[in-house]
Amino acid sequence: MKKTLLFSLLSFLGLSLTYGQQLKPLYSKTDTLPKVAYKDLNETPLPKIEMQGKNYLGEAMRSLKSEGVKSVDINKERGVVIVELKPEYHPVLMSLSDIKKKYTNVKSEHVIFRIEDSFVQNNPKEVLVDASNIMLISVSLVKFVSDIEDLYMITLIPRTDKNIKKFNEIRIR
Question: I want to staple 84 with a disulfide (CB 3.0 to 4.6 A). Which of 70, 129, 152, 169 is the partner?
Fold first, then answer.
């Protein structure tokens, strides 16, 4: 009986102390030093996709025409997303390296690739995108890295309704 009473009293005290605690907020207006967080850009890698019986890196999904996709299924056992295309949709799959060679005049090997707002973390020779659905290829020289003089960022913008509307807007300043 004493053990039960002692155990329940300790449990009650322990739970009340942990439940009633207020944590100090992580950020406040009075902070004078910034918090530093080291983030792995590849923290949430895209799953591999299977399309027309072949396996591709997940970045290929970002450039596919949504109206050309018939269905998307997930196979958890194999860890792939199975994308079934409509019979009339034939994507022109090209590697990012080939797109750089074909459509830009960038000769440098120091290139950061982005597809819309996402940085590509895989080998540009292995990442395939639907070149027929790329609306814009934006090339920018990155000047703020002192050791590398020929660093470029190439951003691919797929042809989607949202992007077409955004880029066709007329802005009056």
Answer: 70
